[in-house]
Every structure is written in C-alpha cells, then in structure tokens.
Amino acid sequence: MKKVLFILLISFVGLNIYAQKGAYQNESEATKAERMQWFTDARFGMFIHWGVYCQLDGEFNGKEQRDPKGEWIMQNLKIPIEDYKKEVVSTFNPTQFDAEKWVLAAKAAGMKYIVMTTKHHDGFALFNSAVSDYDIFDATPFKRDIVKELAEMCNKHELRFGIYYSQAQDWYQPGGYKPAKRWDKAQTGNWETYFEKIVKGQVTELLTDYGKISILWWDSGRATQNKKVADKIGSDLVKLQPELIVNGRLGGALQGDFKTYEQVIPATFEKNNLYNELCLTHNRSWSYRASDTDYKSPEFILETLINMASIGGNFLFNVGPKPNGEFPKETYEALDYIGNWLKTNGEAIYGTSKSPFYRLDWGKCTQKTVDEKTKLYFHIFDWTSTGELLIPKLWNKVDKAYLLDEKLALKTTSTPKGLLIKGLPKAPKHDLATVIVVEISEELNLNAGYITTSKNQSFELLPTNALLTIKPQFDDIPVIAGEKGDEYFDNWKNKYPHLRFKIQAIKRYGK
Ligand code: JFZ
Fold this sequence. Notes:
Layout: H1 2-18, H2 29-42, E1 44-48, E2 59-60, E3 63-64, H3 73-76, H4 81-89, H5 99-108, E4 113-119, H6 136-139, H7 146-156, E5 160-166, H8 191-209, E6 215-219, H9 227-237, E7 245-246, E8 259-262, E9 276-280, H10 298-310, E10 314-319, H11 329-345, E11 363-370, E12 373-380, E13 389-392, E14 400-403, E15 409-415, E16 418-422, E17 434-440, E18 452-453, E19 459-460, E20 467-469, H12 486-495, E21 502-504
Parallel strand pairs: 1-4, 1-10, 4-5, 5-6, 6-7, 8-9, 9-10
Antiparallel strand pairs: 2-3, 11-12, 12-17, 13-16, 14-15, 14-17, 15-16, 18-19, 20-21
Helix pairs in contact: 5-7, 5-11, 8-9, 10-11
Residues 69, 71-72, 219-220, 222, 262, 279, 286 line the site of 4-nitrophenyl 6-deoxy-alpha-L-galactopyranoside (JFZ).
C-alpha cells in the first residue's frame, strides 16, 4: 500500500510544479486569464516617471539636449557620474511630495492602478535599497522611501501598485550599460555581475518589502546582454509574488504577460496577443521638463482611453511630477476631465472587451456580457443633428436601447443597412463622447467586413475604411480624407512630411 501512495504523491507534486501559476510559468490560458482579470477589467492606469532628472530642463553645463525625453539627459549629454551625483542627485529634495494626494488624484480620475519608476536608466533608486547607496535615502537630503510611501497609499485606497524597473541599462552601476555605449570609466564592469547584484538584489527587495506588487514593468529589454541570465533571474524573481503580472520587456526569451505599446497609438492589436497596454506621455517627455508645455488635450487623452478599450487594451497615462513633488497643473486638468466622464460612463470602459465592429465612422464601441445579454456601448464622438443614428450591419433584435447618461430610453428600427436608433436629443450629453447602450440577448449578427468583392474577383478597401496608427507627438493627425481619399494618397508625403504613421489595411488588392 505504502508504495502506491508514494507513487501517487510523486506524480501529484510533479504535476503541481508544471501547473505552477504565475508569470513565466507553464500555466494554462484559463489560469492566466484569472490572474490577468483585474488588469483587463481595470483598462486605465497611471504611469509615473519621477527622478532626479526632473530638475533639469534639457540643458546641463552649457550643453543642450535634443531628445525630448528629460529622463535621458544624463546619457544624451554624457554627463560624468560624479557631476550628476554632485549637481543633480544631491540637490533632489521634493518637500511637497504627498503620496496620498497622488493616489487620490489617480483614483478620482478613474484609474485602477499606478506604475512608478523605482529605478530608471540613470541607475538612481527612488527607494531605500540595501544593495546600493545610490538611492533617495542615502544620496539626497530627502531621506524618505518614496516607493514605500506610494505603495502604502495605493494599498490604503485600493489601487493596484506596479513597479517600473530598468534592468537592461543602468548608467551608474558598473557593468550596467553596453560597453560600446559607456562614457565614464566608472561604468566599467561585468554585466552578469551587475544583473545578479543590482537587478536581482533590488527587484528582490521591491517584491519582498513593499507589500503586494501587482505589476513588474521591466524596461529596455532590447538591450539585455545575456538572455539566459535575464531569463533565469526573471523567472526566479516573479515567484516572490505569484499573483504578479509582468510586461514583455525583460528582454530574454521569456514573453511577459502583456505587450506594451509606447507612444504609438495602434489601430488594432496583434491577433495572438490577448493582453495589451499602451503607454503615452502627456507632453513629449516621460519625466517633467519645465519647458515642455506641449501637452495633449484632455479630450485627446480621454479619446485615447476609449480608443484603447474599443480594441481590447489598457491605457497607461503618464504623469511627470515636478522637482518639488507636485503634479503639473495640466495633469490635474486632464485627470479631472477624464474622471468626470468616467463617473457617468465608467461602465462602458471597465470590464469591457473589444468592439465587434471593424470600424465606425462616428465613434467607437466596447462591449460586455452581463447575465447572458450582450451590452454594446457606442461612444459617439460625432453627434448627429437628425436625432437618428445608424449602427451599420447590426441586424439583431434589440431588448432595449438607452443613453447611458440618465438612462433615457431610445427607439430602434431594423433597416437593410443596420440598426437605426431614433429619438436622440439634439445635443450630445458630453462634448467629446456620449454613450448609447444597446442590449441584445441573442448571438450578435453583424457583418463587420468592409472589404467588398467585385465581379472581376478583385477586392477593394476604400481609404475611408482605413484603420490609422498615429504618433500623437506630431501636431496634425490626419483624418482619412474624403470619400475616395485621393487628396490623401496624392500628396500625403508633401502635406505631412514630418509625420510618420503607418496605415493599416489600406491596399487595393488587384486580381
Ligand atoms: C523606455 C525608456 O527609455 C523611456 O525613458 C521611458 O521610460 C519608456 C516608457 O520606456 O523607452 C522605450 C523603450 C522601448 C522602446 C522605445 C522606447 N522600443 O522598444 O522601441
């Protein structure tokens, strides 16, 4: 009998190891979906890029920085480590820092998680690290553990807390930067030693001593110099917080839990990636730069949130706090605008999945299934003055339709072109997006395709049906021009010489 029991025990333990849950483990899709649920429900988070570099504004010792990213100034201007320590690190004293104020601002904006830089590429740690004294506690007059204070406030106000960590490039620690790119002899050292001592040491501290960490946001994966070392350490570290989710930037062979898009607003996500997040600066720099006043409008930020939810992804909106620890006023303006909209319309964002429509001319769609009913949320950007709105190619029987704001009931009629919604008020309920809900309790019946076939077997996809990937750092974001878009094709190179964008699915397929 004992022998049988022993074999059973071994097989169970064996299975258990293979079925171990967590990032980089062989968990089933269903187990992963469970672990990712809070993330996909959340849809909206705050990215915080903060560090000693925010005191500089693109200039150091008479040299000008060309790159808009303030957090890169040390590398861009090849600032010697000793100068950076003496003139930038030692002066950092954010006396107005108030973690609770930051967290309450994020919460009021409808954000469900915060990811903050704990160590960026300059190697400076915003937490009290035992493996290096190049940190806020030992090297500045501030002597407080910013990461700990923020983690505690996130926990208190029930926001998820994530840590950004630059593992693959560190301009301070010996061996932390690619040999070919080093500019200070103090950077000389062995990359594996750096990874073991600093990366493994500090991420272990962060995943052990800072309470529940929900996201590990690796960065600069493309610079990882020894993928085997990165994989081994990455896989070991995540076991410290089994519920943790990680992005795909460790840089080894290990794919993370979600793909990160940065600064480029995708029109769609890759089919095989279920979990995606766009991170976007508010102006042009991740960190605060006093002279960078090129802030995106609150309307554009809200539209981007709706846009990302409509293609089934998350939006991590970046904040760059000032040297004194306060958010810029433009940040509060955007957070207030978005928070007010979400107070009424959050149901159309949180816990939703991507639109079943290929494209809608007048706005976006999100959806969720509640008690076996499909709820379609139509976010109308271009309000109709006729009191009617056609939902193209939707031919389902509708249980009910209503304006999400005030739940005003709407009439609907099925037409050969789709579902006609009638009785809309003359004015929209919001200056950017008014939401109409259509509830359906049968399988969705819509032909979302926009590719029309013709007699000679050629296919045609018109420019007006194009999906546009945009880089919002550039001022004029082109709308697909007109019906045929000829003016678009004819001179788009002349009209937008500085604008680089990729147009997906605008091709005319020949025979
Ligand atoms: C990185 C950082 O260099 C930057 O400062 C900021 O923290 C951002 C969120 O992440 O920037 C990147 C990282 C990866 C790519 C481009 C910029 N990439 O893969 O093209």
